Amino acid sequence: MQPRDLSATSPYVPGRGIEEVARDLGLDPTDLIKLSSNENPHGSSPKAVEAVHQQADDGLHVYPKASHTDLTEKLAAKWGVADEQIWVSPGADGAIDYLSRAMLEPGQSVLVPDPGFSYYRMSTRHHHGEINEYELSKADGFEQTADLVLDSYDGERIIHITSPHNPTGSEWTREEIRTLLDEVDDETLVVVDEAYGEYSEEPSSIDLLSEFDNLAVLRTFSKAYGLAGLRIGYAAVPESWADAYARVNTPFAANEVACRAALAALDDDDHVEQSVDSAQWAREYMQENLDAPTFDSAANFVLADVGDASRVAEASQRAGVIIRDCSSFGLPGCVRISCGTREQTKTAVETLNEIVAEVTPT
Fold it and tell me: What are φ and ψ of residue 198, in 5° steps?
């Protein structure tokens, strides 16, 4: 017996971890700087860490019903929406699956960005949907507009847009999102992925849920809150979808520890502020000091055009700085560098400048 044909589904390619790289290269893990996965260089919210320890002491033998309800209520209050509008999930990718289950019939099509987060495609394929793409142009600085999407739009059931976008860092304006929502069919769901939303100065599209019933917004605790290892996120959806969540949600998928950590992290404004301010500094430093063209970014990373991403990323890794080769995104000339601490960022820029000088033809 074999699984069904999955050949059309490309697997998600994560950034390499410190332990993995250290083992392969025979290096001491403490000598490596990992800037490949857009993780928070300041770690988790201290309040979240305290909540994790407390929950471990209190016991992990109870299903997370109360904590799930508490987190839902707190998120709803944060955004000024009804409790029924918050779909808590195991990471934002879990919310993508929930929306695919709720909205997609077999054979319906989904419009996704290219380049873009591979799980949009994976979730669509898993739910027997078809993929269409709209292309973000490197020549245009990966600008994202309603016209860009509408030029490729053909009545798809779901459209995925990302703001800020991974791996480019470009973002949508409120005006362009509103235009897109006005122009698509009533039965087309626009999913706005705001995984990096805390780093952006644009307002969240959650504010538009009172106006549009074909909108869903994704958020995560992985980035600014530093809880990537706990896999906790959520979708904000129209109030009219109240009964759909219970029908598509995996029972207790958001675990007790993750829910309690997220609850605590929501009260840790100082940690989020530090994370956002640090990322802004690091973005500006890289854009001003890297000896390679960079693209405007509103996220916690910078995309740089280094000519040969594979060579540069491999050389950087050997030199102790792990960055992301974006060939898997269809950008073989680009690397993505996550925002580190000031010391990490300065070291990364110095290392990359030496490498770019060596590998770039004169």
Answer: -65, -25
- Summarised one tens digit per residue, pLDDT across range 31-81 is 899 999 999 999 999 999 999 999 988 888 989 989 999 999 999 999 999
Nearest to 168 by CA among 349, 340, 337, 352: 337
- Convert the pLDDT of each residue in 78-120 to its tens digit: 999 999 999 999 999 999 999 999 999 999 999 999 999 999 9
How far is the CA of 205 from the CAs of 162, 174, 238, 262, in angstroms?
Answer: 11, 7, 12, 21
d(CA 247, CA 243): 7
Residue of 286, 257, 261 lying closest to 353 (CA atoms)? 286
Q: How many helices (H) and strands (E) does the chain have?
A: 12, 12
Residue-range domains of the chain with CATH: 18-44+269-359 (3.90.1150.10), 46-265 (3.40.640.10)
Owner of token pair 């873009």: 116
- Asked whether the CA dihedral 149, 152, 158, 160 is positive or negative, the reply is negative
Q: Quick one: tokens of 176?
A: 């362009």
Q: Tell me the residue type at 283.
A: R
